[in-house]
Structures are given as C-alpha cells and as structure tokens.
Specification:
heterodimer; A: mainly alpha; 51% helix; 0% strand; B: alpha/beta; Rossmann fold; GMP Synthetase, Chain A, domain 3; 2 domains; nine-stranded mixed sheet; eight-stranded mixed sheet; 28% strand; disordered N terminus
Chain lengths: 91, 501
C-alpha cells in the first residue's frame, strides 16, 4: 500500500519528536520551518541521526543525490524525497 | 630518552612578501578562495587588503598595540587574517560570536591590551562589496596599555587555549613560526597550487589556522571555507567546489561513513582534534582515500602528521612522524608499561627551535609566563614513540590509572567500549577505589542504534573486548555528555556529575 504524503509527513514528525535527541514537540513542527539554525535548530550531529532513522523506519536508502540542503530544507521537502524513494523501490 | 634526528623547519615567505607572491605569481593569482557566498582570487585580494589599510588608518589602528580579530569561517575571515599577517600586526585570534551566543548572553572576550577589534563577519551579503560590508573595525573601549606586551618584538599571534581552569590564557607564537610550521605541513602532505582544499574546520582555531589555512596560502591553493560541520552543507559545497584535499574532524569522518553511499576519493584527508576510532580509519580509506592523522596544539602548532606516502597500516596506527623543525621525546611512564623492543612509552614532550613561546595569563592583570628558546614542552599526552620514528598518541597522560599493577590508558578502554553495538561515545571516569585499584566507570552515550542499551549488557561485552583488569567496574548510559566550548567532552564536569550521583 502506497503511503499518502500526509502519512509520510506524520511519520517523519514522529521520528523528530520520538527518536531524535531534541527538545521538540508536535506543535513545534510546522512542515515549512527550516530545519537548521533559526528554524528548528537541528545541529550537525542530529542531522546524521535523522538520516539514519529515516532510512531505518521507512526501510529506504537515501542516495548521495538526495543528501543535500535542498532535500533537508524543511519537513515537507524531506517527505517528498522519501515518497519518491519509496515509489522507486516499489518498482 | 630518545632524541629523534630532525630537519630544521623551512623558511616561509612572511609579511608583505606573502601577498605579493600570491597576487602576482602567474600560476597562482587566478586561483580563488570561496565560502559559497563570496569568491576572491589571490590577485583580487591585494586591492581589498589596501582598502582595509585605509579603514585601519581612519580608525587609528597602529602596530604599537595588538589587534583582536573576531574571525568567522568565511572569505572575510580569511582576508582579515591575511591582512593582519601581511601587515605584521600583533593579533589575538578569536571566534566571531554567533547570533545564538549573543542571544544567550555569552560575554564577548576581548583582551584589554588590544587597542582595536576587527570583526570579520561571514554574514555579509553575497555579491556585495566585501571590503565595505565584511569588516567592522572599532576601538576597544576597555583598552589598557600593558607594559608586559610592549616588551615583545613581534609580530606575534595569540590564541586562546582550552585550559581547564577557566582563567583566560593565551598562547603566543610569532607569525614567522606559524608560517614555517605551515610550510612544514605543505611539505608533509605535498600540497601544491593545483590542490583544492576543503576547510570546514574553523580557521580561528589552531588546527584550521595553522594546518589548513596557512598551508593552503603557502601552497597557493584554492580553498573553500563554506562547508562547516553540517554533513549536508559539506556535501553541497563538495559538489560545487570539487575539493581533492579535506581537513576533517573525527566527527566529520564518522558522518562520511554514516550517511554517504558512493565512494568519493580525495587525494588525502587530514583529521585532528580528537583521536579517530580505528574502525573509522579502516572504513574511511577504501571509500574516501588516505586519511592522515595530525597531532598538534595551540602551543606548538602542528607537531606530527602522517604522509600520503606512508603505508596504510602505519597511517592507521599512528599520527605519523614529527614535522620539520619539531623534536619529540618521551619521559618514561614506568617500567611495567608494555613496549616492544626499540619503543618507548611515556609522557610526550616536544621542542621547537626558533621563537620564544609562552603564555599570557589574566590574573589581576595580564602577565607573561615565558618559556625559553629550545625548552622541552610537556604536551600532557601519553605517547608511544616507535623505533621507526612514528608516534602513537595514546591519550591525555592524566587519563590513565594503575589497575592490578598495570597501566590502563583511558583512551584504549574508551575505544574498546565504543566498539560495543549501540555505544556512540564512551568516556571513562575514575571514581574511588576498587579491588583492582582505581574504580572505573564507563559513561556511555547511546547512538542511533542504541535504543534499549543496557548497562549490564555493555559491561558483559567489555569482558570480550578488554583484558580483565581494564574492564570498567560500572557502566552508565546517558543521553548527552557535557561539553566544553571547544566541543570536546568536559571530563571534569562529568566526573563531578558521577561523584554526586
């Protein structure tokens, strides 16, 4: 069953709130807020955690072409790349 | 005691000669430094530096008093450093205070003996006039002339040391000595103008300044300061800048291994700061190219480094051999330390010829604690000097204890505990006594794969990974480790924490 974009986004939010070592709640997670610095304030260590949790929870591999600031601009953008990856792996 | 034979340090072009060479040599002048926001060629630097002269003159900056530079990881930061070096000012090199530090009320540290403060901000608008927007020059309102400074010959560069006491302490080393040390790095890594250097490590700390920025200049190489410690930003910059040499930290090396999927070869990558895990070293090389350990400090600059010509097994095990101009020896740690024939293990000491180093320390006033020419310097580290002249740095010499009459080096135990599945970082703390000697507690930071990590399970694994006398008496799992401003683990705070609980 293909996941809807809302479902993917919800699951990413759950990773941020429940898996990452950050002090963020669901209310903080507007999907268009930047992840770094003045946005959610994720630091360089947490980013690596986020990548590995996404790969584990969605059972996907984020290739080098997906590992850039554009993908990780905000949660919506991450969810979009995850959906693309899921679709590719289903083929 | 061993006195390794060594070669004198090469003599680097200093002062105005450096900029003259960079901006006119036809093979170099068109190469650039960049941070992704601004790009300036070596030829284009000369007029920018001249305009900074005008700003300095207007603000009444003179060579009579040291200048503090608040430096950012940017082209502006690089230009400010090159300006102060080429014009032979005495410089106190400080990091620019970030927005978050300003908000949290971190006080700005400007030594009172600096007449002016240059702030080289990385936040200048892209495409704007860098000479106008990138720099702020202001008089230091708290300026007090210090007689102790006036007696120095200079030009000198002062760096703040991490020091564990909290008392402001600056190391002093002459420009020329830093430049000669930088040229020794150029030699060791065979850097040339054709290299493209990725410099994510801060150019306002001794590693980034002395072992990346200065060698880059002295090789006339293109440099990129735009990537920082964020792996995603690093990968973005890597794609655009196409570096073939990188200056990394153990944390960045681990990030390479954790997230990158395809191999991407560098001619060489240098790492310094903390010790790299052996697994990281072994995993890095086949995918990303030779990884060279560098050992150094704010007091001595770059001390020892591996070379791309070293065989891989030697690169894995050591921090190479002393750079030109540097001598190393060890003071024996005790007869019961395991050392093969021809090896010596003990407190590492270091000696460097030219210049006279010392500390400026702020008590009531600033005072200078000199260190005579050619005196041996206690690095505070424990090391093994091998018969072939290579050096293995084992850890801080304070960070070892005797158990069952044998030496336990904390770094060794920590490396072993970090091999336990789910443990991202392990710090060993000695607290009280046990039957074997000092009681050892392994404080473990659980990694992404460390959900449900149990102390007794970690300790169980330690029995398989360590000799019995080195197995920690207790394992504690934590969510975070206290850190020093430098980003290193604050062992003292951790010790206090353990003592209280």
């Amino acid at each position: 069953m293909e996941m809807t974009s809302d479902q993917v986004l919800e699951r990413v939010k759950r990773i941020v709130v429940e898996d990452l070592d950050v002090n963020l709640g669901y209310d903080d997670l507007d999907e268009t807020v930047p992840l770094f610095e003045e946005g959610l304030g994720l630091d360089s260590v947490i980013v690596v955690e986020l990548i590995s949790f996404i790969e584990k929870r969605f059972d996907i591999e984020l290739g080098d072409d997906a590992l850039n600031m554009e993908t990780f601009k905000d949660l919506r953008s991450i969810a979009r790349v995850i959906r693309e990856q899921l679709a590719r792996q289903q083929v | 005691m061993n006195n390794l034979s060594h070669r004198p340090a090469p003599q680097a072009p200093g002062g105005p000669a450096l900029v003259r060479w960079l901006s006119t040599d036809p093979a170099i002048r068109d190469r650039s430094v960049t941070d992704g926001r601004h790009t300036v060629s070596y030829a284009g630097m000369a007029p920018l530096l001249d305009r900074l002269d005008t700003r300095f003159a207007r603000c009444g900056v003179s060579r009579r008093h040291p200048v503090a530079v608040e430096c950012s990881q940017s082209v502006a930061g690089a230009l400010a450093l090159l300006h102060l070096l080429s014009r032979e000012y005495d410089v106190v090199l400080l990091p620019e205070l970030g927005e978050s530090s300003k908000e949290s009320g971190t006080p700005r540290f400007i030594p009172s003996f600096c007449s002016h403060v240059v702030t080289a901000s990385g936040r200048a608008q892209p495409g704007g006039d860098l000479a106008a927007d990138g720099f702020d020059v202001a008089a230091n309102e708290a300026f007090v002339e210090e007689p102790v400074i006036a007696g120095f010959r200079g030009p000198d560069l002062y760096l703040r040391t991490s020091g564990s006491t909290g008392v402001p302490k600056l190391t002093r080393m002459s420009h020329q000595k830093w430049l000669n040390n930088g040229l020794a790095c150029v030699e060791r890594w065979q850097l040339t103008g054709g290299d493209r250097l990725s410099v994510p490590v801060p150019i306002f700390h001794s590693y980034g300044f002395g072992a990346a920025f200065l060698p880059g200049l002295l090789a006339g190489a293109a440099m990129d300061f735009g990537s920082g410690g964020n792996i995603l930003r690093y990968l973005d910059r890597e794609e655009l800048f196409q570096p073939n040499v990188a200056f990394l930290t153990p944390a960045l090396c681990d990030m390479f291994l954790a997230v990158r999927k395809a191999p991407r070869f560098y001619r060489l990558a240098v790492t310094a700061g903390d010790k790299v895990k052996r697994e990281t070293m072994a995993g890095f090389e086949p995918r990303f190219g030779p990884l060279l350990n560098l050992y150094g400090s704010a007091e001595m600059g770059a001390v020892s480094a591996a070379s791309p010509d070293d065989p891989p097994d030697r690169r894995l095990a050591t921090a190479g051999y002393p750079l030109a101009g540097i001598e190393l020896r060890v003071e024996a740690a005790g007869a019961d330390v395991e050392a093969a024939a021809g090896e010596q293990v003990g407190r590492l000491q270091c000696r460097q010829k030219n210049g006279s180093d010392g500390y400026l320390i702020l008590d009531e006033r600033w005072r200078f604690e000199p260190r005579g020419d050619g005196e041996w310097f206690e690095t505070g580290d424990l090391a093994r000097l091998r018969a072939d002249g290579y050096v293995e740095v084992l850890g801080r010499s304070g960070l070892s204890v005797k158990r069952d009459g044998l030496l336990v080096v904390f770094a060794d135990v920590e490396a072993a505990v970090e091999r336990v599945e789910g443990v991202q970082r392990a710090i060993l703390v000695a607290a009280g006594e046990s039957r074997r000697g000092s009681r050892l507690i392994a404080v473990c930071l659980a990694g992404p794969a460390g959900e449900g990590l149990r102390p007794d399970a970690v300790r169980q694994r330690c029995f398989e990974l360590l000799p019995r006398y080195a197995v920690p008496d207790e394992v504690v799992i934590v969510d975070a480790l206290p850190q020093l401003p430098s980003g290193k683990v604050d062992r003292r705070a951790l010790r206090d924490l353990i003592a209280r609980s």
